[in-house]
């Protein structure tokens, strides 16, 4: 049973975290391209479309990505290692990465997408939407700054996952280390 759970855990990590890290890493580039083209005229439809798709990938895979810690906890419980230091550190880093994704990365991506893009189509935006629509779109310089900060945050997110992977492989202090 432990081998099945471990296999599902690793498969879920590869199939969910991988696409999130790639899509989140690419998003700032396309947000900057859309802002640069907007400064010269209408924003690039291609750059806006790609940024929208990358955001939907991040959001969708984040929802499905809950399977990674679920299978991980089940595997740890099955193996009786839930109190091992390397596993506790991995769980803490995973929680931090998830918090970065949900509380910083996804909201900043939404901030960089135009209001009438994926969320505002079809009217009925309500008072909050009308208030935001009245605001001037962010300047190219502001968009570039937001995209740069988002890229740095995404880099930290990716680094956290890299450390988790190393901890999962090396398992320092584990009696089951290879």
Give me the secondary-structure topology.
Blueprint: H1 2-40, H2 45-64, H3 67-79, H4 85-112, H5 126-134, H6 140-170
Helix pairs in contact: 1-2, 1-3, 1-6, 2-4, 4-6
Region (Disordered): 115-139
Keywords: Membrane, Transmembrane, Transmembrane helix
Biased composition (Gly residues): 119-128
List keywords for this structure.
single chain, 178 residues, mainly alpha, transmembrane, membrane
Walk me through the structure.
- The protein has 6 helices and no strands.
- By secondary structure, the chain is mostly helical.
- The chain has one domain.
- The longest helix has 39 residues, at 2-40.
- The protein is elongated.
- Residues 116-136 have low confidence and may be disordered.
Mean pLDDT: 85
Radius of gyration: 20 Å
- Measured by DSSP, the beta-strand proportion falls in under 5%
Structural class: mainly alpha
Beta-strand segment tally: 0
What is the approximate shape? elongated
Terminal Cα separation, in Å?
20 Å
Uncertain residue ranges: 116-136
Summarize the biggest pleated sheet: none
Give the helices and strands as they follow along the chain: HHHHHH
- Residues in helices, as a percent range: over 70%
Q: How many domain modules?
A: 1
């Amino acid at each position: 049973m432990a081998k099945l759970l471990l296999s599902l855990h690793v498969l879920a990590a590869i199939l969910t975290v991988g696409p999130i890290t790639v899509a989140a890493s690419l998003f700032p580039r396309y947000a900057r391209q859309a802002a640069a083209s907007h400064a010269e005229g209408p924003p690039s439809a291609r750059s806006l479309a790609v940024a929208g798709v990358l955001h939907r990938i991040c959001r969708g895979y984040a929802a499905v990505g809950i399977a990674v810690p679920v299978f991980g906890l089940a595997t740890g419980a099955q193996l009786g290692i839930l109190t091992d230091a390397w596993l506790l550190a991995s769980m803490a880093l995973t929680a931090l990465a998830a918090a970065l994704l949900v509380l910083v990365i996804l909201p900043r991506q939404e901030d960089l997408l135009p209001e009438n893009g994926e969320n505002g189509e079809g009217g009925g935006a309500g008072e909050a939407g009308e208030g935001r629509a009245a605001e001037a779109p962010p300047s190219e310089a502001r968009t570039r700054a937001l995209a740069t900060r988002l890229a740095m945050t995404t880099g930290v997110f990716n680094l956290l996952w890299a450390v988790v992977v190393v901890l999962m492989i090396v398992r320092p202090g584990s009696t089951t280390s290879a």
